[in-house]
Amino acid sequence: MPAHTFARSRYATDLLGRVAAGWRRIADDQRRGVIGAARVAADLAALDAPPALLMTAGHVIQEEIHHLEVCARVLEELAPGRANRLDPPDLGQAPSERGANLGLPRATISSERTLARTLVADYALGKPVTAASFAAARALIREPLLAWAYTELLHDETRHATFGARAAVWVIRNWSAREREALWTACLAAPGPGSATHSNDPEAEALGLLPADVDCALPRWILPHLEPLGLHPRPANEQTLLH
Ligand SMILES: [Fe+2]
Known about the structure:
Blueprint (H helix, E strand, L loop, with lengths): L12 H34 L4 H28 L16 H7 L10 H29 L3 H12 L1 H15 L5 H13 L12 H5 L16 H4 L17
Fe (ii) ion binds next to helix 1 and helix 2.
């Protein structure tokens, strides 16, 4: 991919080190995305979800793996010689312990309530916010490699958001209005996506070398997908979510 260049010589070593560390955190987020999507697919299958929904869940897993590949490509350029060092540093740990380090619950079939909350909070509400932060960084970046990476990362997010809403509609199809209300309250109280891994590096963020936090306003396009859930959030600030 010769067009996807990164001019390392433009930046101080210290800044490059922080940017590489930031992209390792993004890679960790993507790894969580793979595990989370696989878990959602398994939970939906256990609940006898229709094959069409399971097919989409399978595509989401595949796309999250692609996002991990994109991060590996970025890290090859940012930290040559440390390419593909996408695993957490403590590789001596058992996989289940590594999962715990990534903040993941142990692999068990989730309750219907937990699954619904994941689909709404992490996918329907969370993915548009993640996409917005990548889109904002892409608008600033002058490095072709990172412009490509942001495009690849945000490309699937809108579809993942609508998948989350559609799958949640199926999961809660027999829920009462009161149960739906409780779900909505729980989702609004959940921490935003990537909130634990945000870099908070104004210098790198101003150059688009790392994505910055964006405000958590919902884009208007997701609202029709939330309506069948019986959830009616107010849209705001759709400007930040254009991509
Ligand atoms: Fe992703």
